[in-house]
């Protein structure tokens, strides 16, 4: 399970998080900056686990499920206005 998560599903955003994490980590080591180290760890964690701020595909809109057996009859009422 973990091996499959690590080696599959590499898209542009995952590569970008990995690149940012490595770059910020190098900068954190060179400047001895702890905050940048935590930020780098955050980006590297997101890249390795394939998660974002909302979780794995947390920001996607769920697809509606169409049930052909559950068909509702819609009743319309005409509203006339006085002119």
Topology order in helix (H) and strand (E) letters? HHH
Number of strands: 0
The Cα radius of gyration reads 24 Å
Low-confidence stretches: none
How can the largest sheet be summarized?
none
Q: Provide mean pLDDT, rounded.
A: 83
- N-to-C CA distance: 68 Å
**Share of β-strand residues:** under 5%
Give the helix/strand class.
mainly alpha
Task: Specify the overall morphology.
Answer: elongated
Q: Percent range for helical residues? A: 40-55%
Core attributes:
83 residues, mainly alpha, 3 helices, 51% helix
Tell me about this structure.
The chain is an all-alpha fold and 83 residues long. The protein has a domain at 2-49. Helix content is 51%, strand content 0%. The protein contains three helices and no strands. It has helices spanning 2-7, 12-31, 34-49. Helix 2 runs antiparallel to helix 3 (34-49). It is elongated. It starts with a helix and ends in a 34-residue tail after the last helix.
Quick summary of this structure?
This protein has 83 residues and is an all-alpha fold. It is 51% helix and 0% strand. Helix 2 packs antiparallel against helix 3 (34-49).
Q: What's the topology here?
A:
Layout: H1 2-7, H2 12-31, H3 34-49
Helix pairs in contact: 2-3
């Amino acid at each position: 399970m973990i091996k499959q998560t690590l080696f599959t599903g590499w898209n542009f955003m995952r590569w970008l998080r990995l690149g940012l994490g490595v770059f910020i980590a190098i900068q954190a080591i060179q400047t001895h900056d702890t905050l940048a180290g935590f930020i780098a760890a955050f980006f590297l964690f997101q890249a390795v686990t394939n998660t974002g701020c909302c979780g794995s595909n947390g920001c996607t809109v769920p697809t509606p499920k169409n049930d052909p057996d559950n068909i509702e009859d819609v009743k319309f009422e005409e509203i006339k206005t006085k002119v």
